[in-house]
Amino acid sequence: MRRSRIVSTGSYVPEKVLTNVDLEKMVDTSDEWIIERTGIKERRIADEGQAASDLAYEASKGALKDAHLKPEDLDLIIVSTVTGDMPFPSTACILQDKLGAKKATAFDINAACSGFLYGLYVADSFIKSGIHKRILIVGTEVLSRITDWDDRTTCILFGDGAGASIIEPSEEERGIISMHIYSDGSMWDLLNMPGGGSRNPASKNSIEKGLHFIKMKGNETFKVAVRKLEDLAVKILEENKLEPSQISLLIPHQANLRIIQAIVERLGIPMDKVCINIDRYGNTSAASIPIALDEAVRTGKVKEGDYILLEAFGGGLTWASALIKW
Ligand code: UT7
């Protein structure tokens, strides 16, 4: 076995659309400000009855169908999420049950918006070591449940969705070429949800203080994200002796269009080689990259032999990349 390879993808977004104009009626903001500062026009919001595992289930069904596989064919399920169905058990175990993937082991990964690439890193290592043979990785988020709808600095940013990929060993030259994951816990306070854990357990007091909502120092996070993602992209290309022009598709985490534009400018690649869905879905955290990848596959944007570069950045702080020969 030479490499691990993504053999199929799937994604799901809830039907309900919340536009910037809708948000204008909820907080002091404007469609113009949101588009100019973030690139977001609308986002999807899960139904009351939908939890992270429900979105994950829909995305996973798509990936299984695409690969002509049955749930019993999976031997590992990794779910990346910060909005799991409940603190425990893992959302991966709940998804395993929903799918009927009786032969799979299942666990969650929490790396915020970098979660899908952290999951891919673990899956790639397990496949290369021979421990697992067929792994489902899902990024799924219902961020609308931890969004403070009175806070205009965050509520305009987030959306709900899920994306899934199945990874297998490959004897071919194509597959995952190189992966990197990084963390810097010294900046954990830039982006977090302080309530509901052992530090600030859920209580009347924690709810009154709004600790069960996302808190973000947006401007500081933005600056670190741009620097880390630009530097990482340059490093990956150098390490793999690739010119930017050899990258057919860049699939960045969709946190802010201006962050994506900064990476693109630094690399000198045209915007038509970049997958963008932030305008339609906002920031869906761990789900943004697998949703964008699935859209790229289904619309024929990615072809066999193409080099594609995936990059993520999120709370932790965490950041990560994957270089893939499709
Ligand atoms: O996914 C994980 C990683 N996440 C990120 O990387 C997100 C990074 N951060 C961002 O994307 C941006 O920082 C934001 C989009 C969150 C904010 O954009 P910004 O250009 O950094 O704005 P700012 O926070 O510096 O605020 C500028 C002004 C402020 O007003 P004053 O103090 O200049 O009068 C804000 O109060 O914009 C104001 N503002 C708004 N105005 C209208 C903040 N939010 C809004 C809003 N509508 N929704």
Describe this structure in words.
The protein has 326 residues and is of the alpha/beta class. It folds into 2 domains: 3-171, Thiolase/Chalcone synthase (Peroxisomal Thiolase, Chain A, domain 1, 3-Layer(aba) Sandwich), CATH 3.40.47; 177-325, Peroxisomal Thiolase, Chain A, domain 1. 33% of the residues lie in helices and 25% in strands. It has 11 helices and 13 strands. The strands form 4 sheets. It has a 5-stranded mixed beta sheet with strand order 1-7-6-4-5, with helices on both faces. The protein has a 4-stranded mixed beta sheet with strand order 8-13-12-11, with helices on both faces. Helix 4 (91-99) links the parallel strand 4 and strand 5 (105-109). Helix 3 packs across helix 4 (91-99) and helix 8 (218-239) packs parallel to helix 9. The longest helix has 22 residues, at 218-239. The chain starts with a strand and ends with a strand. The structure holds oxa(dethia)-CoA.
Write the SSE topology.
Layout: E1 3-12, E2 16-19, H1 20-24, H2 31-38, E3 42-45, H3 52-66, E4 76-80, H4 91-99, E5 105-109, H5 115-129, E6 135-142, H6 152-155, E7 160-170, E8 175-183, E9 191-192, H7 204-208, E10 215-216, H8 218-239, E11 247-252, H9 257-267, H10 278-281, H11 288-298, E12 307-314, E13 318-325
Parallel strand pairs: 4-5, 4-6, 11-12
Antiparallel strand pairs: 1-7, 2-3, 6-7, 8-13, 9-10, 12-13
Helix pairs in contact: 3-4, 8-9
The chain binds oxa(dethia)-CoA.
